[in-house]
Amino acid sequence: MTGMALQNAKLQRCAQWLWHWLPPLMLMAAIFYASSRSTGPQVQGEWLDALIKKTAHVLEYTLLFLLLVRAWKWTLDSPGNGQSDSMERVLWAALLTTVAYGISDEVHQSFVPRRHANWYDVVIDGAVPLLLCLLWYWRRSRLGSRNPDLAE
After folding, report:
1. 83: left (phi over 0), alpha (psi -120 to 50) or beta
2. pLDDT tens sequence across 27-40
């Protein structure tokens, strides 16, 4: 490979990395920013406010999980790493990254004035991603023998 071709290959690899990893990293930065605020917008009615905030937790961490599945799939299945990982490893990597970020978010909030950490927020953050993983396992067990692509 010539010097220019090698440089282009490195540049292309960097662009692909950004394409796959920038979206989850940007969402993580947005979550970090929102967690850094001492107070957020409030809705009238305590139960409605809590419902909206917990729903936001579910949505943002589900989106984070899906973006991480995309990023980890590209990373673990890249031709340069010498192996093609199964979707199972990709899902585990994305789930563990999502839950670890949820934990770090709660720890971060414990240092923000007028905020506090809640263990149940971590459970909420990881619930839908875990459910999606379980659905994938269930679907693979039901369809795996008929669909070789799912059985990986």
Report:
1. beta
2. 999 999 998 987 76
For residues 137 and 132, give the distance between their C-alpha atoms in angstroms, rounded to a whole number. 9
Residue 9 to residues 84, 87, 103, 123: CA-CA distances in angstroms? 20, 26, 37, 41
d(CA 106, CA 76): 28
Residue 132 corresponds to which tokens in the numbers above?
């999606």
| Cα separation, 130 vs 127, whole angstroms | 5
How far apart (Å, rounded) are the C-alpha atoms in residues 116 and 107?
8
Residue reference for tokens 């923000």? 112
Q: Can you tell me the mean pLDDT for 118-125?
A: 90
For residue 79, the model assigns a pLDDT of 59
Structure tokens at 59: 């949505």
Of 105, 97, 91, the closest CA to residue 32 belongs to 105
Closest CA to 20 of 61, 77, 65, 70: 70
Whether the Cβ atoms of residue 62 and residue 129 lie closer than 8 Å to each other: yes
Instruction: For residue 2, give the H/E element and its range.
Output: none
Rg, C-alpha atoms of the chain: 19
